[in-house]
Amino acid sequence: MSASGTFNYESNKAYEELVGGDNGVFSSNYQFLVFCASVGHARGEPADEAPQEDDMAADGRESKEIRWEFISQNSELSVVTASLTYAHTGRPESLLDIDAQTDVLVKYGAAGSRIIYDEVVDQSGDNLNNLIDFIEEQRNDDRIAQQSGVLEQIQSEFSSI
Amino acid sequence: MELDTLSLTNFRQFYGDQELSFASGGDQNVTVVHGSNGSGKTTLLNAFTWLFYETITLPKPDHVASERALAEVAPGENVTVRGELTFYHEDNRHTFSREWTVERDSGPELSGTRVDEDLTFKFVDESGNTKTRSNPSSAIEEIMPERLREIFFFDGETIDKMVANDQTQIQDAIRNIMGLRILDRAERHLGHVRREFDDEVQKYGSKELGEIVERKNELEDEIQAKKDEKQNLIESRTEAQSELDNVRDTLSSRQESRELEERRNSLEDDLDDVENDIDQINDEIKELIAGEGYLPFAMPTIEATAEMLNEKRKKGEIPNEIKTAFVEDLLANDECICGRPLPDGSEPRDNVAQWQEQSGSSELEEMAMKITGRLTELADSQEAFYEKLDDYMERRAAKSERKTELEEKIDEVSTRLKDIEGEDIQQLETRREELSDDIESYTRQIGAVEGKIEELESELNDTNRKREKAREENEKSDQANRRSQAAEYVATQVDQLYDRFQDEVRQSVNDRVNDIYQDIMAKDYFIEVSEEYTLKFKQRVKGNPDQEVAVSTGERQVASLSFIAALVSLARERYESDEDLVYFTGGIYPMVMDSPFGSLDPEYQQNVSQMAPNMAEQVIVMLTDSQWTDEVAGEMGPKAGEEYELVYHDPSEEDGTDFEYTQIKPVVGEF
How confident is residue A54, by pLDDT bands cut at 50, 70 and 90? Predict the structure, then answer.
C-alpha cells in the first residue's frame, strides 16, 4: 500500500457495467471490490498477476486506485476482508497486516471480477437479473441454517471469555 | 432589441404605406393591435418574419405583394413591397429594411415575381454616425436568430406544442437569450485552432506521432459525425412525437373513437405507474445487493475464520494471559519479573524469550473479538438478505404480471379501433402504431449512437494518452504539440464552464417558469425544465420519485407562455444587472403575441394579461374583439401605450374596390 493510504486494484468491464451510472448496481468501486473478492475466494484461486499501473490490457482491464480507509472504516467490510485474509494465509497475524489484506483483496478481487464479467455481464439479458441469478446459484438454505447455529455458538463461547 | 416602429408598403393585404409605433418601457409598455378574424393579425406577425428572415408561414407564401397594388399596374410593370423596422439594440438605434421589386405576371391570377431585392441594415453608433452593416442577414441572425422566431413572434394557436415536443428549440432559446452562444462559439473556434496545430504536428513530427495525431483527428471527426447523427435522430423523433400527438388528439376528438382513446390513455397511465413501481423495486434490489450481496459468498470464509479462531480459544491462545508487550519490556529492561537479571546469551533470558512465541498481542485479540462479536449479526444478515430478495422478487413478479395484462388491454383497444367502420379511424390508428414504432426505433438508434460515441470517446482518451507519451524532439512539432494541448486544455475548460453555466441558467429558468406558472394557474404540480431541455409537468408524491402528470391544452399553453416570459424576464434582469457579467449578458427582448389566449379560461386570461407586461420590456399583442374581454382589457388597457385597429376592407361589402386590403389605424379614445 502506498504512503498516501491507497492501493491499486484491477478494474475491468464488469466495473464499467455494474458500478455507477443509471444502470449500475453498486454505487462505489470499493463495495464492488469486496463483492468480487468474496466471489473470487468462494470460487477458488486468486488471480496470479497483480495489476500493472498504467497498463491497459486489451480486454478492458486496467489498474485503478482506491483508498484503504473506505474499507477499513466500514465495520462489515473490514471483517470480511480480515476473514478472507486469515483464511488465505492461515496466519492470525494477518488479521492486523494491512498489506496482506490489500493483497488478498487485489488478487481475489481480480479473479472475482473476471468471473462476474464472464457469468453476469457477458451474458445475454439484463445485468441486474443476471446478477440476481448468479447470487441465487450460491444459495443453500440448509447450509445457511446450519451455519447460523455454528456461528451463534462460537460467538457465545467467545462472549464468555 | 426594443422595437420602435414598423413600416409596411404593399406587404400582402397591407396595401399602400402603413406604420405602427411600439410602446416600450415604463408603465405603458403594451402595444395592442385589434383586428377581427381575417383582418391581418397573423399577416402582421408574418411581416416581422418576412422582414428578418424572408419567412412566411401563411397560405401562398410566394404571394408577397398586395393584390390591390398589383391590380393597379399592368402585367410586366413593377410594384414595390417594403418592410422597415427600427429598433434599439445595445443602446444604438438600428434600421433594418427589406425591399422587393415585384413584376406583375401576365395571366388571369394576380401574382408577381420578384425581380430585384434590397436589404439594408444601418445603425447609429455612439458618436452619432450612421453606419451600414455589410452582411444584414448574418447581423440580424446574431441579434434575433431565426430558430427563435416561434418564441418571440408566436402564434397562440400552436404555442402549446412547444411544451410537448421541441427540446431543440427550448435549448436553443435558453442558450441564445442568456448569452451563452459566446461560449458555444469559443468552443467551436478552439476546436478549429487545435486542428490547425495538429496538422502542423503531423507535418513536422515523427511518423509515430503523426499517426497518433491522424487517428485522433479521425476519431474526433467520427465523434462529431455521430453527434450530428444523434441530433438528426432526436429531431426526427421530435417530429414523429409531434405527429403522434396530433393523431392522438384527433382520435380523442372523434366521436367514434373518443371513448376507446380515453380508455387507452387511462391504461397507459396505469402502465406508466406499474413501470415506475418496477423501476423502484429494481432500485431497492440494487441497494440490497450493493450493501449485502457479498454475504452469500463470504459467509463460508467467515465461518472458516471463526472456527480457526475458536480452535485458538480452545487451546488457550485467545485470550493469552502473557502479552507480547509484557515479554518485550522484560527483555528490554534485562530483568525478569522475579528480579533476576537477564543478560544477553544467558539461559534465563532464552527462557523468557521463548514466551514471546506463546504470547499474544492485545490488538490481535481485539480483532479476533471484533470478528467473533459480529458472527450472529452476519449470519442473520445473510438470512435477511435472501428473505428481502424473495420479497422483492415476488413483488416484482406481481407487477410484471400486471404490466403484461395492461399491455394486452392496450393492444385490444388498438384492435377495436381498427375494427371501427370508416377508413379514417383505421388509418389514424395504423398511423399511430407506425409513429409509436418509429419513436421506439429512433430511441433505440439514439441509444446505439450514444453507445458508439462513448466507445469512440474512450478510444480518443487512449489516443490522447498515447500522444502525451510519444516524445517529439522536432522543435516545430513540439511547439505545435504544446500549443495544440494548450488549446485542448482551454477547450476543455470552456466546455466545463459552458456546461456549468448552462446548468445554472437551466435552473434559473426552471425556477422562474414555476413562479410565473404558479401565479397564473395555482396548481399543485410543477414544471421541470429537464436536463434534456423538455418541459415536463410533475407532481410530488411523498416517499416516491416525482411523477409526470397529463395536462390540458390550456395548461400547456400557459406553460409555454410562462417559459417565454421567464426567458425574457431573466434576460432583461441580467442585462440590467450591475454585476460584471461576461457570459450571462442577457438582453432586452420583446414578446410579440398573436392571439395568446386561445384556450384559456377568463381567469387565466386575466392572469396572463397581468403577468406579461411585468416580464418584458415591451409586449405587442394582437387580439380579436372577442379576445379583448373585460378581464384582458382591465389588465392590459391601462398599460397600453399604443393601440391600433386593423381595418379590413372586404370587396364583397364595400363599393369602390375589387380587392381586400387592410389599413392600420391608431385607436383614438377607448376601443
Answer: very low
From the list A92, A93, A131, the residue facing B312 with the nearest CB is A92
pLDDT at B165: 56
Interface contact flag, A79 B306, Cβ < 8 Å = no
Residues B326 and B118: their CA atoms lie apart, in Å, by: 103
HEC sequence for chain A: CCCCCEEEEEECHHHHHHECCCCCCECCHHHHHHHHHHHHHHHCCCCCCCCCCCCCCCCCCEEEEEEHHHHHCCHHHHHHHHHHHHHHHCCHHHHHCHHHHHHHHHHHHHHHHHHHHHHHHCCCCCHHHHHHHHHHHCCCHHHHHHHHHHHHHHHHHHHCC
Cross-chain residue pair B376–A138, CB shorter than 8 Å: no
Of B282, B312, B361, the CB nearest to A128: B282
Interface of B with A in 334-393 (CB under 8 A): 361, 363-364, 367-376, 378-383, 386, 389, 393
Query: Which neighbouring-strand residues pair with B123?
Result: B94, B131
Q: How confident is the model over B457-513, as pLDDT tens digits? A: 988 988 888 777 765 545 566 777 777 778 888 888 877 877 887 788 888 888 988
In this prediction, residues A120-143 reach a mean pLDDT of: 92
Winning range, highest mean pLDDT, from B109-113, B224-228, B477-481: B224-228
> Alpha-carbon distance A62 to A8, whole Å?
10
pTM: 0.52
> What is the percent of chain B with per-residue pLDDT over 90, rounded to a whole number?
31
- The cell numbers describing B79, all together, are 410594384
CA distances from B312 to B74, B366, B423 (A): 117, 14, 87
Share of chain A above pLDDT 70, in %: 88
In the block, which residue shows the cell 402582421?
Answer: B44
User: Residue B106: what residue type?
Assistant: S
Q: Is the ipTM of this complex over 0.85?
A: yes
User: Contacts by B49-58 with C-beta closer than 8 Å and gap 24+?
Assistant: B49/B149, B49/B153, B50/B11, B50/B83, B50/B98, B51/B83, B51/B84, B51/B85, B51/B96, B51/B97, B51/B98, B52/B85, B52/B96, B52/B140, B52/B144, B52/B146, B52/B149, B53/B140, B53/B146, B53/B149, B54/B98, B55/B146, B55/B149, B58/B12
- What residues pair up with A65 in beta bridges, in sequence order? A8
Spatial contact of B197 and B205, defined as CB atoms under 8 Å apart: no
Phi/psi for B463 (5° steps) reads -65, -40
Segment 93-112 of chain B within 8 Å of chain A by CB: none
Q: Do A42 and B300 touch (CB under 8 A)?
A: yes
Q: Which of B71-75, B199-203, B514-518 has the lowest mean pLDDT?
A: B199-203
Considering all CA atoms of chain B, what is the largest pairwise distance in Å, rounded to the nearest integer?
A: 139
Residue A141 pLDDT greater than 70, yes or no:
yes
Judged against a pLDDT cut of 60, whether residue B625 lies above it is answered with yes
- Residues B298/A84, Cβ–Cβ less than 8 Å: yes
Q: What secondary structure, in 3-state letters, does B590-602 show?
A: CEEEECCCCCCCH
pLDDT at position A102, please? 93
